[in-house]
Amino acid sequence: MAKRVWLSCSDFIFTSKIIETARHTKAEVISLRGLDGLGSHPPADLYLVDLDAKGFDPIAAIQAARAASPALAIVAFVQHERVDQVRAARDAGASRILSRGAFSERLPALLQSGA
Length: 115
Prior knowledge:
Blueprint: E1 4-8, H1 12-25, E2 28-31, E3 46-50, H2 58-68, E4 73-78, H3 83-92, E5 96-99, H4 100-113
Helix pairs in contact: 1-4, 2-3
């Protein structure tokens, strides 16, 4: 069964890479700006959040997703030097936090497993 993935990322190139990888793994990606419009989308197996995103608060998005769905796997990705964002994401309820490089390497497995 294909995984449904919510994605909050403001980097167009990185978003394209995630969507292309999802096509190969048969995952369905629903692109969200933070959690705007979340109520109109079906539940997801996985939520991917760019901690470096512009235009929305990724920490607030993680908190809202965790409150709405306590069992949801939330994977955040960030530039490795953003220690402040890593701590904030962990405190907000992210399941895993990866550097952008590690996230890129593990993306196919994340999309297939949903965690």
